[in-house]
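One such given next:

>
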Amino acid sequence: MILHLGSDMSIRTREVIAIFDLDVIRPSQASREFLEIMESEGKLVRISNEPPKSAVLTENALYLSPISSWTILRRAEHGQFGPEVTAWR
């Protein structure tokens, strides 16, 4: 299945490794370093000019999305990923 990340960007749901809320991970030094590494390797994809709210990690890229992580998670819970999706709350 396909997961819409915002703007004109969609990816295959089976490619998703993790979905992050940027408000939660940004304060962390490790998270900032990870974002810098992904950017330096050309794997950081900004899919919109809008401020990003979430990051979606795949094996090949980290997508910064203007859609909240909770919205993406709700899409996953409603069948876009299948029954193997688990959310930590």
Summary: Residues 49 and 66 are 9 Å apart (CA to CA). The chain has one domain: 2-80.
